[in-house]
Amino acid sequence: MTPSSPQTSTNPWPYRWAFATWLAAIPLLLFGGTITTLDAGMSIDGWWILEPGRGDHFLLFYPIEKWFRDLGTFSEHTHRLFGILVGNLAIVTVIATWWKDSRKSARFSALAALSAVCLQGWLGGSRVLESSPQLAFLHGALAQIVFAILAWNAIYLSPRFSASDKNQGAESATLRNLGVLAILGTYATIFAGTWLRHAFSHGALGVHILLVIGATLLVFLFAAKLKAASTNDPTKAHLRSAARRLHALLGLQILLGIASFWVIVMVTENLAPDVHHSVYPTLHVLFGALIFSQVVVATLWSRRACTSDRGRHPELEAAAMEASA
Amino acid sequence: MEFRGEPKSLGLSEMSSKALGGDEAQSQAVLDALVQLFGTVDAPRLDSEGQSWNSGSQLSKAPADLASEWLAELRAGNRKRFEEELAQIARGDFDDLGPWKWAPQLSEDWEALIENAGGASDFGEQAQRFFSDYYPGLRDSAALYGNKCLHCHGNEGGGDGPTARTARPFPRDFRLGIFKYDNIRDGERPEREDLVRVITSGIEGTGMPSMAQLSPAQVHGLADFVRLLAMRGEVEERLVLDVEDGLELNESRVQSEFADILGIWRDGVRERLEAPTEVPQVDEARLRRGFEIFHDRTSANCASCHGTAGKGPGPAAFGPSPNEPETDIHLLRDAWGHEAIPSDLTTGRFRHGSSPGSIYERLALGIDGTPMAGIAQSTKADGTPLFSEDDLWSLVHYVRALSDPEWRELLSRLESEAP
Questions:
Q1: What is the pLDDT of residue B50?
Q2: Is residue B391 within 8 Å of B289, Cβ to Cβ?
Q3: Does the pLDDT value for residue A4 go beyond 70?
Q4: Residue B47 pLDDT exceeds 80
Q5: Quick check: B168 and A69 CB within 8 A?
Q6: Angle at B19 between CA B18 and CA B24, to 5 degrees
Q7: SS3 assignment for B309-325
Q8: Which of B87, B116, B266 is nearest to B177 (CA)?
Q9: What pLDDT is attached to residue A313?
Q10: Which of B3, B166, B202 sits opposite A137 (nearest CB)?
Q11: Which stretch of DSSP H or E encloses residue A311?
Q12: Alpha-carbon distances of A231 from A87, A160, A241, B219, rounded to whole Å
C-alpha cells in the first residue's frame, strides 16, 4: 500500500474499520432501544463487575445462564457486549488511521469518533451505577449523535471522499445549508422522541409530532435538492443514491411512527402491550438514527464532486492529468 | 421533566382500584386514610398512638426491635461510611459537610445541629457522635429506596417497578406481607434480621442484587421502609375490603385496621428456625435415606414437584387446563398469582443459599407464599415429628448430591434399584 499524500488517502483500511464500527453500532442501538422500550435499564446490577457481592462477575465473563435469565437481562447484557465491540473497533480505527493515513484531519476524525464512543459508554455505565433515570435520558439522547459521528468518520476516512473535489458553487452552499437545517430538525425530533420515551408525557408526544412534521418536510426538501443537484451531473451520483435512501428510510419511519403511536395508545388505555409490540417503538428509534446519520453524511457529501474512478486508481488520474496538460 | 423510575406519590394498587370499581370518592377515602397512617413518599411515617416510629436520623429514634447486639456493627459501619467527614471533624473543620445523597433528613439534622451548637466547646464530640450514631429515618430510607429499589419493586412496593416488566423471577410484591426467604415458622411475618439478610446478600439466580456496599445502618433503614410498605399494603387491602362490605372508613375503623396489622408485625409471636451449626458427614447411608425421603410418596414426596431426578418440574406441577381438559398446563401458583416453578435441583444453585445450613432451613421451613412446604412441621398421627433432624440432614445431603459429580454413580444406582 502506498502512503497517502497530505491531502488524500488511498488506503482503504481506516475506512473499512470505521465502517465496521458504524455497522456494529446498529445492533448496539437496536438493543439500546429495546432496553428503553422494555424499561430494562437496571436489569443487571453493576458495571464491569456485575452482581457485586453475589457473584462478582467480570462483564465479559457473565455466566450464560444469567445472561439468558430473562428478556431484560438478555437485552442489557447484549447491549453492553456490543458496546465493547464498538469501542474496540473504534480503537482499531484510530490505530489504522495513525498507521495508514497521515492527514491530521483524518486522525482527528478517528479520535473524535473514539472519544464520542467512550463518552457514551461512560454515560451508560454511570446510569447503572447511579441508578439515574436522568443519565438514562442523556445516554439515549446522545446515542444518535454518536451514531452520526461514526458515520461521518467512516465517510471522511474513505479514499473516495478524500479524493473527491470540493465544489465551491452557490448551489452546493444552498444544499449544505439545507442539509444543516435538516440535521437540526431531525435531531430536534429525535430529542423530543427521547423525552417522550423516558418521561412519557403527553406534552412530549405533542412536541414530537409537531417536530416530525417539520423535520419530514425539511428532509424531503433536502432529498429533493440532492436529487436535483445530481441530475445530469455524473460527479454527483452519490447524492442521488443518498436521496433515494432518505426517501426509503423516511417512508418506513413514518409507518413505524404510526405503529409506535398505536402502542402508546394501548399503554395509555392500560392495555399492557405484549413484549413483541415493543418492536415498533424500538425500530422507530433505530430508523430515526439511520435517517439522522444519512442526513449528516449527505450534508458532508453535498459540497463534493467525484467520479467513480477517483481514489481507486491514482495512476489513471495522473495519466488523465498528463493527457489534458 | 419527570422520568420513569423516579419516586411518585404513593397510590393504590391496581387490584384496589379495580375492587373499588373506579369510584374516585372511595379511592380517595382509602388513599387519605393511608396518607394519615403512613405519610407520603417525601415524609413517610408510622404513627402509633401518637408515637412516631423512626422519624429522626439517630439511633435513639430507631425502632424498638433494633436489638442492642446490632449497635456495635451499625456504629462501626457508620464510622466507615463517614470516614472523611469524621476526619474533617477531628481537624476541627465543620464547614462544607453535606448535604448527603439519598439522606435528606440527615442533611437537615446536620444543619440544625450546626445552627444550635452555638460554638459549644464539646461540639466536636457532638458531631462525632452524630455520625457514629446515624440511623436512617423513614425519610432517608424512602429516598434510598427510590434510588436503589424502586425500579424493580415499584413505588408502593408492589413489585411493579419499570424493570419488573421483564425481570424473571418477578420482583417481590411486599404488600401481602409475605416474604419467601425468612427463618420464621408457620408463615408468620419476617423479623428484622430476615429482611436485613436478604437486602445485604441479594438472592442468587434472580435480579435482586446484594446491597453489601451500603452501610449496615442504611440496610436496616431499608428493612424498616420495606416493612412500612408491607404494612401499608396490608392495611390498604383491609380498608378496600371494608369499603366493599359497605362499611364507612371513619377514624376508629381506620385506626383499628392499622392497629391490627401493626400488632401482627410488631408484637406477633414468631418462632425462628435456624440450621444447627454442626453439619454431619455425607456418606452412602445418608444419601440412601435422603433418596428414600425424596421419593416417598406418603411423606415428603419431593419428586412429585421436583421430578424423580430433581430436574423439576415433576408430575404434580402439571394438570389439565380448566378450559381445555385435553391440554396440560402448569398448575402451581404462588401467593401473587405467578407460576411457581419447582426448581431444578441439579444446578447446585439455590436462592436462599447453597450451603448445607441454608438448604436445611428451606427444607424445614418451606418457602412462604409458594406450594413448597416445610417438612419440619410434618407430624405423624400421634403428633410426633415425621422427620428427625438426622432425616433432614440426609435430605439436605441428597439434594446437594444431585449437582455433585462425585455422587453421580451412586445416585444412578439408587434410581435403578428403586421399585
A1: 44
A2: yes
A3: no
A4: no
A5: yes
A6: 70
A7: CCCCCCHHHEEECCCCC
A8: B266
A9: 47
A10: B3
A11: none
A12: 39, 20, 11, 70
B247 and B30 Cβ atoms separated by less than 8 Å: no
Three-state DSSP at A85 gives: helix
> C-alpha distances in angstroms, A94 versus A26, A298, B110, B263?
20, 23, 51, 67
Per-residue model confidence (pLDDT) at position A307: 52
Nearest-angstrom CA–CA distance, A147 and A289:
7
How many contacts (CB atoms, under 8 Å) link A and B?
A: 93
Mean pLDDT, residues A123-131: 95
Give exposure, B202-238, as e/b (b: 16+ Cβ within 10 Å): bbbbbbbbbbeebbbbbbbbbbbbbbbbbbbbbbbbb
C-alpha cell at B360: 436445611
Q: Which three cell numbers stand for residue B130?
A: 452524630
Phi, psi of A144 (to 5 degrees): -70, -30
C-alpha cell at A277: 409490540
Q: Which of these ranges, A84-93, B169-178, B373-382, has the smallest mean pLDDT?
A: B373-382
Q: State the DSSP H helix or E strand holding residue B52, giving kind and residue range, or none if neither.
A: strand B51-52
C-alpha B107: how far from chain center: 28
Closest CB to B201: pick one of A41, A54, A195.
A54
Query: How much helix, strand and coil, in percent to the nearest 5, is found in chain B?
Result: 50, 5, 45
Distance CA A29, CA A284 (A): 11
Cα–Cα distance between A115 and B96 in angstroms, integer?
A: 34
> What is the pLDDT, as a whole number, of residue B299?
83
Q: Do A39 and B168 touch (CB under 8 A)?
A: no
The helix (run of H) or strand (run of E) holding residue A239 is helix A237-268
Residue showing cell 405519610: B39
How confident is the model over B84-92, as a mean pLDDT? 91
Given A69, A71, A131, which is nearest B151 (Cβ)? A131
Q: Which three cell numbers stand for residue A230?
A: 445530481
Q: Report angle CA B179, B183, B189 to the nearest 5 degrees.
A: 45
| C-alpha separations of A129 from A38, A133, A224, A320, B198 in Å | 19, 11, 46, 60, 20
Q: What is the ipTM of this complex?
A: 0.86
Cell matching residue B158: 408492589
Q: Does A72 touch chain B (CB under 8 A)?
A: yes
Minimal CA separation from A42 to chain B, in Å? 6
